[in-house]
Amino acid sequence: MRFDLADLRLFIAVLDAGSITRGAGAANLSLAAASERLRDMEIASGVPLLLRNRRGVVPTRAGDTLAHHARVVLRQVGAMQADLSGHARGFRGSVRLLANSAAISGLLPERLGPFLARHPGTDVDLAERPSPDIAKVVAGGRAEIGIVSDAADTSGLETRPFALDRLILVAPRDHTLASAKRVAFATVAEEPMVGFDGALQVQLREQAERIGVGLRPRILLRTFDGLARMVADGVGIAVMPQFAARRAKRSMPLALLQLTDPWAVRRLLVCTRGGSEPGPLTLSLLEHLASPGNPE
Fold it and tell me: Where is the HTH lysR-type domain (predicted)?
């Protein structure tokens, strides 16, 4: 069988998007061209690589195997390009970076911007995942760099500090709690809440269970901006990262209260696979993200 790099990039794009249509767009191919390439790949391999359903596509066991090797090949190609390109012209290649919702909605974009501006030949394949999933993917060698909460199991990974992630309570400006500056989670856990559809909500549910409260948010949202908008409209209170709350407060009538619980201050870590030497491009990005000069 013979697959070229364009085939491998398309296959990975389709899996990451969960859709042939979106994957084709990410690979800058028409839907017809992408479908034909995928069909030829399945014919060449002699086995189905994708299961198609109404929600999109998922890999077969053979597809999972191909995806693993495709990522290895593409990383090696990126490392080769980085090695061949001099520092004077900047790195060339791609790094797969997974980050949790707190990092992606907060400090990560402003840290990535200067690096990418200095290295116009570099691409970052960025995806959002829960911290425990990120740790497993990086440990398995399917991503070069991850940004996780220190609550995740990072055994087998090399870690460096990235930032502090402070969780705070957000309430409407006219809420009875609005005049307070600090509050314990136990005093507000039974208030009507707006929840975040991600790992943060899992953490809050676990903390509520420890104090005997069954957390039942009125609605779950996928963005912190949407979360803040619901709070400002009076739907309920919410817990969210401080940097996201401060950004939302610039345009919305919100009150921000510090949570006094120790678990409300989390460390974000940059992690790589333990026991392996990162390539030059990955190492450069890693050192930039973990630089002490970056603001927390």
Answer: 3-60
